[in-house]
Amino acid sequence: MDTAGTNAVSNGNMSLADRDREGFFHPFTSIRDQRVNGALVMSSANGCRIRDTDGVEYLDGAAGLWCVNVGYGRTEISDAIHAQSLSLPYFHTFNTIANEPVIRLSERLLALAPANMRRVFYGSSGSDANDTAVKMLWSYNICRGKPEKRKIISRAYAYHGVSVASGSLSGVPMVHQYFGLPIDFARHVSRPDLYRDAPARGFATEEAYSAYLAKEIEEMILAEGPDTVAGFIAEPVMGTGGVLPPPKGYFQEIRKVLDRYDVRMIADEVITGFGRLGRWFASDLYEIEPDLILAAKGLTSGYLPLSAVLVGEKIWDVFETVAGDGRAFAHGFTYSGHPTCAAAAMANLDILERENLVERVAEMAPVFRKTFDDRLLDLDIVGDIRSAGFMMGIELVADKTQKRSFEASAKIAGRVSLAARRHRLLLRALPNSDVLALSPPFITTTEDMATIADLVRAAIVDVTDELKAEGLL
C-alpha cells in the first residue's frame, strides 16, 4: 500500500499549523504550547518586516535570533548563493581540499579581526563553534605537555550553545536540567550584573565591581588548581543571560588573572561579531585580547548556517610547532568550509561594508537607547533598560523601588512578548528572567525604532492592566 501517497492527500486537507503539530519537533518550545496554541507560520520577509501565511505583517525587533543584521530580502546574498550552487554547491574541506569562496572569506575575516588572529576554522552553528574551541584548548594543552589543563570557566546564565560541550559551558538552568549537564570540565562564576548584583554587594564604582569579579575567577582557578584550568569563556555582552554589558575595566582585570595562571581567553562573539555593537568585533571595543574568537549569526546574517573559530597566535604557534610529526587536528564537520555558505558570507560582508552598516550602528546606538528610555522608563513594571550598540534588555519588575522580581512561574516577559505579537511586533523574552531582548537589523530607521518602542510600551501596558486585574500588582 502506498502510505506516502495517502499521507500526502491527507496532509493536503490540513492547515499548515495542524501539519506542523503532526510533524515538526520545535527547538526550545513547549510541546504542550505547540499542541494547544499552534505555530505562527512565516512566509515572506523584506527589510525589517516579516509576514505570516495569513498575510499579517510584523516588525522584527529581534533580527530573527540576533542574526539578520542586514535585513531581509537582500538579493545580493540570494544571487551569490544561487551562483555558487551552480558552480560548486558543495565539497568537503578534509585532507587539504579547499574552495575559492572559503579561501577568500578566511583572508577577509583575518583582515577584519583583532591583529593577533592567525587562522579560521569553520562549522555551521554557534554551538559547534563552542565545541571546537573546547577541543582546540584541550589539544593545545596536550601539545604543550599539559594534558590535565582541561577545565573551562564560564559564567552563570551565559549562553554558549546546547550541544554536550557547549551546553555545559552555558549557565542557563533549562539547558542543563533535563540532560544531566554540565559535564565535569565546565565551571561557572558570577555574571556581571550592574542592576542587581553590584549594588547588592555595595560596590560604589564599576571598576571596584570588576576587580571583585576578577578576584572570584582567580579564587576559582586557585581552588581548582591552575594546572587544571585551560580557559575562560565570555560573551562581550551577555545575550540570553540578560543583555548585560560588562562593567568598566572588567575584561582588563580578568586578563591580568588569566595571564598570571596561563589560562586562555575565549571571546564568544556569536551575537556581537560583525557589527552589532558598532565595531566589527566587540573584542576590539572592550580590549578583550582573546586567544579564540567564536562567530556565527551575523557572519551570513542568517541567510545560510555558518560559524567560524578565529585562532589566535599563541594557540596557532603551538599547533604549527608540533605539526612536523604529521599529526592531524582530528576534528571537523561535513559542512566545514561549505562553499555556498562562504559565498553568502562574502555577499553579506559586502553589504555591511558598502553601506557602512557597522558605523551606522555606532552612530545610531544613542538614538536607539534614548527612544526607549523616553517611552518606557515611566512605566510601573520597567525596572531597568540597558544596552550596547543594537542590543537592548528591558527588565520587568514587580516593584521598581525594591527591584522586586515577579514570581518566575508568572512568566511576565513571556506574556509581554505574546502581547507584542498581538501588536504586530516580534521580540524575545529571555529564559530564566523577566527580560525582554531587542536586537533589530542594522537597517532599522529612526521611525521604525519609534514604532517598535511604542509597540513595546503598548504591550507592557496591556500586561500591566492584566496583572492589576489579577491582583498581582
Describe the fold and architecture.
Helices cover 44% and strands 15% of the residues. It is α/β, with parallel strands linked by helices. The chain has two domains: 47-70 and 356-469, Aspartate Aminotransferase, domain 1; 75-354, Type I PLP-dependent aspartate aminotransferase-like (Major domain) (Aspartate Aminotransferase, domain 2, 3-Layer(aba) Sandwich), CATH 3.40.640.10. A seven-stranded mixed β-sheet has the order 4-10-9-8-7-5-6, with helices on both faces. α6 crosses α16 (339-354), α7 crosses α15 (313-322) and α17 (357-376) packs parallel to α19. It is globular. The N and C termini lie far apart (60 Å).
Briefly summarize what is shown.
Helices cover 44% and strands 15% of the residues. It contains 19 helices and 15 strands.
Ranges where pLDDT stays below 50 over 5 or more residues in a row are 1-10
Major sheet: 7 strands, mixed
- CATH fold topology of the largest domain: Aspartate Aminotransferase, domain 2
Beta fraction: 15-25%
The mean pLDDT is 95
Number of domains: 2
* Cα gyration radius (Å): 23 Å
Q: What is the percent of helical residues?
A: 40-55%
The tally of beta strands, per DSSP, is 15
CATH class of the largest domain: Alpha Beta
Query: Which architecture of the largest domain per CATH?
Result: 3-Layer(aba) Sandwich
Write the SSE topology.
Layout (H helix, E strand, L loop, with lengths): L2 H10 L3 H8 L7 H7 L4 E5 L2 E4 L4 E4 L2 H4 L8 H13 L12 H13 L4 E7 L2 H18 L7 E5 L8 H6 L3 H4 L9 E4 L7 H4 L5 H19 L4 E6 L15 H11 L3 E5 L13 H4 L6 E4 L1 H4 L6 E6 H10 L16 H16 L2 H20 L5 E7 L2 E6 L15 H11 L2 E2 L1 E2 L5 E4 L7 H24 L4
Parallel strand pairs: 3-13, 5-6, 5-7, 7-8, 8-9
Antiparallel strand pairs: 1-2, 2-3, 4-10, 9-10, 11-12, 12-15, 14-15
Helix pairs in contact: 5-16, 6-16, 7-15, 11-12, 17-19, 18-19
